[in-house]
C-alpha cells in the first residue's frame, strides 16, 4: 500500500478553490485541467479501491479529495458497499452535505430500492423527501413506503402505470397493483377489468389475487389444464356464472396464442349463447392476439372489425393503442376515432394521438372536420419534431430556414464554469472516466439548469462539449432548452468531409445519412451496441464482412473502429438496401434498423400506403421510433446543408406495394 500523502494534484485543486473563494474566475480550460489532475491521481485510484473493497484506502482518498469537485465519490463508494445495511441517517447526511448532486440522487435511489426489497419501509420514509427525480422503480418503492405509513391513497398516482399493464413490469412495481386491490379508489368494475385483462394475456399470477379479492374462485390447477388443451375446454365450456366467463376468457386467450382463427370460429359458434358483454370481450381477445403478434400473423383487416365488435367493453390504454394502430394501417378513420375515444385523457393528449385525431377528423371531408383538424395541426406545428413537421406539411407551411440560433454570452459561459454540476461532468470527461459517471453528472447538470430555466447556460455547456468532441452530450443538452435554441448544436455535423464524400460517391443524400448517424451513435466513434454493432453507423460485424466481400477487400473486426471504414461500409450498405427496397427512404431506414426483409414484409400487399401510416404501424417500437427520428433529423440536416425548403412528408413519400424482388444480403 503506498504511503498516505496529499497529492500535488489535490494541492492544485486547493489552489483553485482558494482562487474561487477570492472571487478569481479561472478560465474553463484551466479549471478543467486542474480538476482533471486531481481526479486523475485520486478519483481513479479511489474507484479501484472501491472495486477491491478497500474501505481504508477509500477513507484516505476521501480526505485527499475533500477540495475536489469529485469529493463525494469516495464516500459514495463507501456507503454503497453493503448499501442495504446502511442506516437512513448516513444516507440522509450524505444527501444533505451534497444537496441536489447527481451522486446523492443515485445513492438515494439505490438505497430506496434496496430497502424496499428488504421490506424496510420505515427507512425509505426517512430519506424519500430528498429524492427529486425518481425513476419508475423508485417511485413504486416510495409509494409502497408511504402507503405502509398510513397514506392509503399514495398508490393511486401509479395506477395508470401498473393496473392494466400486461407487459414486463419490475418486482417493485408489480406489487403496487396487488396493493391497489384494496384501495378505496378502486371499484369492483375496475377489479373485473383487471382480471379480464390479465386472463386475456395469460398472466395467471397477476389474475389470481384479483379473483380472490372479487370472491371469484379460480383454481390454478384448472387454469393449467385449460392452457394445455384450450380447444377441448371450449368445446363444452359453461358460461353461466362470472367464474365460468373468466375460465372462458382464459381459454380464448390461450387458444389465440397459436390459432386465433380458431377463436374466431369459436365465437361464431357461441355467439347465440354468450351474454353480449362476454361476446364483446371475446372479440377483444381475438383482436389483441393478432394486433400484438404481427410478426407471427401479419396485418389483417379483420382485426379492425373485431375491435369494432368489442366496443362497449372498457379498453385499457394498451388495447386502445393496438386498436388505433390497426385502424391507421387500414385507413379506417371512424374506427380510429373510436379507439382514440377509448383512451384515457393522458394518452389522448400525447402528441402522437393528437396528430392522428387530426388525420382522422380531416377525413370527414366537411367544413367542421377540416376546421377541427386545422386547429390541432396548428397547435402541433409550433414544435419541429416528427409530428410538428408533419403538421406543418398538412397546413402548407414552408420550412425553408433554420430558426435563429442563440449564441451563448460570456455571462452564460461564466455561469456554466461556476456550476458545480457541469464542473463535475467536465472533470470526469477529462480523465476519461467510466461514461456511467460522466454522463450521469452531465444529464443531471442539464436537468438542474433546465429547472432554473437557464437555457443560456445549457447552450454554453453544449458548445463547450462540442469543442472537446463530446458530441452526444452536446446534443443531449441542446435538445433540452425551452425558449432559446441552437439548431447547429442540436444537429451537429462532425466528420463532415468523410460523411459527405462517401455519401455523394454512391448517390446518397448526406442529410439522410447524417440523420441516421445522429440516431445510431450520436457521433460517438467507439459506440458499441448490446448486439455487437459498432462505430458511427453501428455496423454489425456480419454486415461489414459482407460489404468487404462485395467491394473486394479483406475484413478484420477491428476495422469497424476505424472511422473511415465504418462510414464507407455503412453508407455502402445503406445504399444497397435503399436500392433493394425501391429507393424508398422510409423503407430503407426501417431496413437498416430491423433488417430489409422485415421492412419489405411490412409493405402493403395490394395498394400503396401513406408513409406516416406505414411508419406508425411498424410492429417494433424501437424501429418505429427510429424511423421517425431519422427522417426528422434528415429534414433539419437538409436545412443545415442548404438544400432548400424541406418537407418531411415529401421525404417520406408513399410506400409502394410489395414486389417480387428478392432481398439479397444481410
TrEMBL record:
GO cellular component terms listed in the entry, alphabetical order: periplasmic space
Coiled-coil segments on the chain, per record: none
Superkingdom in the source lineage: Bacteria
GO molecular function per UniProt: hydrolase activity, hydrolyzing O-glycosyl compounds
UniProt domain Transglycosylase SLT: residue ranges: 499-603
Signal peptide segment: 1-38
Keywords: Signal
A Pfam family that the UniProt record links to this protein: SLT
Keyword Signal belongs to the record: yes
Record-linked Gene3D superfamilies: 1.10.530.10, Bacterial muramidases, Lytic transglycosylase, superhelical linker domain
Family listed: Belongs to the transglycosylase Slt family.
UniProt name for this protein: Lytic transglycosylase
Amino acid at each position: 500500500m503506498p504511503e498516505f500523502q496529499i497529492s500535488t494534484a489535490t494541492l492544485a485543486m486547493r489552489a483553485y478553490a482558494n482562487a474561487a473563494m477570492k472571487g478569481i474566475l479561472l478560465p474553463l480550460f484551466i479549471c478543467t485541467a486542474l480538476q482533471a489532475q486531481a481526479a486523475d491521481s485520486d478519483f481513479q485510484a479511489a474507484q479501484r479501491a472501491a472495486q477491491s473493497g478497500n474501505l481504508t484506502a477509500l477513507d484516505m482518498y476521501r480526505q485527499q479529495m475533500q477540495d475536489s469537485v469529485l469529493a463525494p465519490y469516495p464516500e459514495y463508494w463507501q456507503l454503497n458497499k453493503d448499501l442495504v445495511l446502511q442506516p437512513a441517517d448516513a444516507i440522509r447526511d450524505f444527501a444533505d452535505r451534497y444537496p441536489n448532486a447527481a451522486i446523492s440522487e443515485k445513492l438515494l435511489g439505490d438505497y430506496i430500492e434496496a430497502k424496499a426489497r428488504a421490506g424496510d419501509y420505515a427507512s425509505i420514509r426517512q430519506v424519500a423527501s430528498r429524492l427529486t427525480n425518481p425513476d419508475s422503480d423508485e417511485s413504486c418503492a416510495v409509494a409502497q413506503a408511504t402507503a405502509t405509513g398510513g397514506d392509503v391513497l399514495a398508490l393511486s398516482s401509479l395506477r395508470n402505470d401498473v393496473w392494466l399493464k400486461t407487459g414486463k413490469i419490475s418486482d417493485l412495481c408489480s406489487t403496487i397493483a396487488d396493493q391497489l386491490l384494496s384501495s378505496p379508489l378502486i371499484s369492483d368494475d375496475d377489479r373485473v377489468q383487471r382480471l379480464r385483462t390479465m386472463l386475456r394475456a395469460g398472466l395467471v399470477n397477476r389474475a389470481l389475487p384479483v379473483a380472490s379479492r372479487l370472491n371469484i374462485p379460480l383454481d390454478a390447477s384448472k387454469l393449467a389444464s385449460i392452457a394445455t388443451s384450450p380447444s377441448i375446454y371450449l368445446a363444452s365450456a359453461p358460461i353461466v356464472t362470472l367464474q365460468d366467463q373468466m375460465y372462458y376468457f382464459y381459454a380464448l386467450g390461450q387458444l389465440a396464442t397459436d390459432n386465433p382463427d380458431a377463436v374466431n370460429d369459436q365465437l361464431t359458434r357461441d355467439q347465440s349463447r354468450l351474454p353480449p358483454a362476454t361476446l364483446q370481450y371475446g372479440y377483444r381477445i381475438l383482436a389483441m392476439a393478432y394486433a400484438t403478434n404481427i410478426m407471427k400473423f401479419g396485418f389483417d383487416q379483420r382485426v379492425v372489425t373485431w375491435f369494432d365488435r368489442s366496443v362497449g367493453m372498457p379498453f385499457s390504454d394498451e388495447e386502445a393503442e393496438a386498436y388505433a394502430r390497426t385502424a391507421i394501417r387500414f385507413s379506417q378513420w371512424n374506427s380510429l376515432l373510436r379507439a382514440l375515444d377509448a383512451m384515457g385523457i393522458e394518452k389522448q393528449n400525447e402528441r402522437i394521438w393528437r396528430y392522428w385525431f387530426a388525420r382522422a377528423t380531416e377525413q370527414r371531408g366537411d367544413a367542421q372536420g377540416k376546421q377541427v383538424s386545422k386547429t390541432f395541426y396548428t397547435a402541433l406545428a409550433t414544435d419541429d419534431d416528427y409530428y410538428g413537421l408533419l403538421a406543418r406539411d398538412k397546413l402548407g407551411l414552408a420550412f425553408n430556414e433554420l430558426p435563429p440560433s442563440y449564441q451563448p454570452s460570456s455571462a452564460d459561459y461564466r455561469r456554466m464554469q461556476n456550476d458545480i454540476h457541469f464542473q463535475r461532468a467536465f472533470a470526469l470527461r477529462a480523465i476519461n472516466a467510466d461514461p456511467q459517471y460522466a454522463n450521469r453528472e452531465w444529464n443531471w447538470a442539464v436537468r438542474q439548469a433546465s429547472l432554473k430555466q437557464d437555457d443560456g447556460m445549457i447552450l454554453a455547456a453544449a458548445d463547450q462539449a462540442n469543442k472537446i468532441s463530446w458530441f452526444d452530450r452536446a446534443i443531449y443538452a441542446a435538445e433540452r432548452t425551452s425558449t432559446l435554441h441552437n439548431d447547429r448544436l442540436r444537429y451537429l455535423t462532425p466528420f463532415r468531409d468523410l460523411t459527405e464524400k462517401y455519401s455523394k460517391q454512391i448517390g446518397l443524400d448526406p442529410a439522410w445519412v447524417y440523420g441516421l448517424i445522429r440516431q445510431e451513435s450520436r457521433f460517438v466513434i467507439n459506440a458499441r451496441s448490446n448486439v455487437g454493432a459498432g462505430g458511427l453507423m453501428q455496423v454489425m460485424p456480419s454486415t461489414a464482412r459482407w460489404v468487404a466481400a462485395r467491394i473486394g477487400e479483406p475484413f478484420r473486426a477491428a476495422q469497424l473502429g476505424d472511422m473511415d471504414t465504418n462510414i464507407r461500409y455503412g453508407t455502402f450498405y445503406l445504399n444497397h438496401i435503399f436500392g433493394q427496397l425501391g429507393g424508398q427512404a422510409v423503407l430503407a431506414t426501417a431496413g437498416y434498423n430491423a433488417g430489409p426483409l422485415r421492412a419489405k414484409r411490412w409493405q402493403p400487399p395490394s395498394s400503396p400506403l401513406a408513409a406516416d401510416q406505414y411508419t406508425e404501424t411498424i410492429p417494433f417500437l424501437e424501429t418505429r421510433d427510429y424511423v421517425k427520428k431519422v427522417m426528422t433529423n434528415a429534414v433539419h440536416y437538409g436545412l443545415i446543408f442548404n438544400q432548400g425548403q424541406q418537407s418531411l412528408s415529401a421525404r417520406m413519400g408513399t410506400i409502394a406495394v410489395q414486389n417480387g424482388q428478392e432481398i439479397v444480403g444481410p
